[in-house]
Amino acid sequence: MRRFIKVAESGNFSTAADQLGVPKSAVSMSVSKLETHLRTRLFHRSTRRVTLTESGSRYLPECQRILAELDVLESQFQDDSGQLSGDIIVDMPGRLYASMVAPRLHEWFDTHPKTRIRLKGADYRIDPISERVDCVIRAGTLEDSELIAKPLGDFTVVNCVSPSYIERFGKPETLADLQDHFLVDYGFSLQSTSATFEYLKDGRNIEIAMKSLVSVATTDAYLTTCLNGLGIIQVPLHGVKAHLADGSLVSILEDFTSAPLPLSIVYPSKQHMPKRVREFIDWIGGVLNN
Questions:
Q1: Taking a C-beta distance cutoff of 8 angstroms, is the pair 42, 59 a contact?
Q2: Cα–Cα distance between 221 and 55 in angstroms, integer?
Q3: What is the C-alpha separation between 262 and 289, in angstroms, rounded?
Q4: CB-based contacts of 226: which residues, under 8 Å, 6+ apart?
Q5: pLDDT tens, 181-230?
Q6: Which residues, 6+ apart, have CB-to-CB distance to 271 below 8 Å?
Q7: How far apart are CA 182 and CA 211, in angstroms?
């Protein structure tokens, strides 16, 4: 059933085998045996991709439910010595992972070497339930939902440009100067909308429409575009500390920064949460709070 789920998620036997660390033939044989046992075909197979049949589409969520319940049951019998095991599926922005989590992740594995972290790293807001993610780290204001959110504090936001940008366009000293400058436009959809510089004034968020040369949909591309002199960015301080320290980025308009960015851990429910996930949420909460 686990191998069937992997193939369904990846749409490819080879990819599923790589993720599971077993030969492709083993995955193919397991799925074939499962189809024989169920007396139904679960996949439409082609040379390039496999897709779920109608029976497979009905069978998949039941497999996921059963295995999730088994996972919770198994975790209840893991001893209290801290020897947790199994996968923990996490989603968070790539820059946050690179700057704050990855440098300390060895501390988690020093205590829990039998666990494995599976990082999704999406730069868009996923649905943890439909995408079967154990927990999500989200920056920004949360939308109302049935998910549980644990606040972690706020990130200070800074305005940055690169030295090469200043050489080419000059350094903006006032808000009025922004009409002659460019902002790196960041958005998930890349639709043609106007880029806006945001700052907080008297408790209100003010937006100034600006020109942009580049629009991006990922946090890595957002930072890289700025480093290469193509615009101003407004970014959490934690992600650019090293660049500000080595001079590859320069802080500008310090009196006109946007509101601090709230950070939260979001997860579906603690009712059926494996022990390893509960402990990881507590651990990463401590890391990000500091």
A1: yes
A2: 41
A3: 11
A4: 160, 161, 162, 165, 184, 232, 233, 235, 249
A5: 999 998 765 555 678 999 999 889 999 999 999 999 888 899 999 999 99
A6: none
A7: 5
List the structure tokens of 251: 């802080």
Task: Give the C-alpha separation, 68 to 74, whole Å.
Answer: 10
Contact 188, 174 (CB under 8 A): no
Placement of tokens 């930072």 in the chain: 223
